[in-house]
Amino acid sequence: MPVPAAAAEAAVLAAEAVVRQAAEEALAQLAGRAVMLAAGGSLLSCFAVLPDPRDPRGIRHSLPCLLVLVTAALLSGKTLLEDVTAWIAHAGPQVLAAAGAYRDKHGDLVPPHKKTVTRVLGALGAQALADGTARFLAARLPAGPAVFPVRRPVLLPSECNSARFPSRSWSTSLATK
User: Fold this and answer.
1) Is residue 91 a part of any domain in this protein?
2) Is the CB of residue 74 less than 8 Å from the CB of residue 68?
3) Which pLDDT band, with edges at 50, 70 and 90, does 114 fall under?
4) Any residues with CB less than 8 A from the CB of 123 and at least 6 apart, and which?
5) pTM
6) Structural domain count, the chain
């Protein structure tokens, strides 16, 4: 028995909404990790440790390439999925080359399609992205306990007995500079 067109369309829209929600969560996770990686390291090598959720047949753009392009869009201020995919679609050849984008038979760099980006982010999910980047960052940490620099305490003006800092009603606690 055939399914009415309206019911089929509603099912497709519901499925797209689920994928879009998962993609939005992955975008938020990616934005947070980008800040941590901005201090140094290679995004491509970070994202290379993540398992690609796609079937290997027919893949044109690697998972690290897609995630680097998404990160670049996020760092450019694009926070909505539609804005991110539009930014990727209009990315320049230098950006696409740096991300390792696919080249067609003429040697031209081809940006990933917006549906590819949405599907990959939805399939990958925020938790897998967080786990993979956390493993990468943990492997880069030196062994041993974390050591933080200790700074000298600085006296507030109310704690000084010189003419330069007359006594005021300031707090008498120590502050660190």
Assistant:
1) yes
2) no
3) very high
4) 22, 53, 54
5) 0.58
6) 2
What is the 3 state secondary structure string of 68-109? HHHHHHHHCCCCCHHHHHHHHHCCCHHHHHHHCCEECCCCCE
- Token digits of residue 86: 């539009």
Q: What are the angstrom distances between the C-alpha of 49 and each of 45, 110, 122, 135, 140?
A: 7, 24, 18, 8, 13
Q: Domain range for residue 75?
A: 7-146
Q: Give the residue carrying structure tokens 């230098």.
A: 94
What phi-psi label fits residue 153: left (phi over 0), alpha (psi between -120 and 50 degrees) or beta? beta
What residues contact residue 48 under an 8 Å CB cut-off, 6+ apart? 64
- Together in a domain, 155 and 88: no
Mean pLDDT estimate for the chain: 75
